[in-house]
Amino acid sequence: VETLGTWLTEKETRENSTVQLVAAIIYQREDLQKEAFTALKKQSTMEQTALWAQMCLQINRCDLAEQSFKKLESVDEDATLTQLVGAWINLHKGGENTKEAAYTYEELIDKFGSSLTLLNGLAVAKMHQKDYDEAQKRLQEALAKSDNTDRIADLEQALAAANERVREQAPDDLRVLLRIDACARLDPSREDFGEP
Length: 196
Known about the structure:
By secondary structure, the protein is mostly helical. It has helices at 2-7, 17-29, 33-39, 46-58, 62-76, 80-93, 97-112, 116-128, 132-145, 149-168, 174-184. The longest helix is centred in the last third of the chain and has 20 residues, at 149-168.
C-alpha cells in the first residue's frame, strides 16, 4: 500500500491510468475507500469510470454512479463495461429496474458465455423478481464453474432454504430475502455472510 502512494505521487507514474486503476482496486480491497476514490479522481479510461461507479454504489451513491454511467454511454453505449455498469445500477435501484438488469445479464451471457460475475448478477436480479427457482438454477451453474465452491454452495443452500420457507410461510418474511440478497453480491472481501 505504501508503494502505491509513492507511485501515485511520482512524476513518472502518477498520470499512468493503469497505475491509477490498479491502485484503486488494491485500496478498495484493503477497505481504503478515500484513497481508492482519490486514485481515480480523473477517470480518464472506461475501466476507471466503471470502477468509480462500482465504488459509488458500494457507498449508496447511485446518483454518482449514474453520472459515471452517462459518461460511459457517451463514449460507447454498446461497450460491455457500459452494459455491466447499467446492470449494477439497475440492481441497486431495485423494483422494475431489475428486469432490465436481468435482460442485460442474459444478453451478456448469450454473447460471451456464462461467468461467475454474470451468473451471480443474474441470480440477484432473479431474486429481486422473486423468481427463486431461476436464481437457484443460476447459482448452481456458478457452483459448477467456481473454484470457491464453499461460498457459492452456502449461498445456494441459503437460497433453497429461503425458497422453501417462502413457499411454506407468508411472503412478508423479508429478513431472509434481504440476507440472501446481501449474500448474492458475493463480495470477495467478505469472510462470512453475517446478518444483513
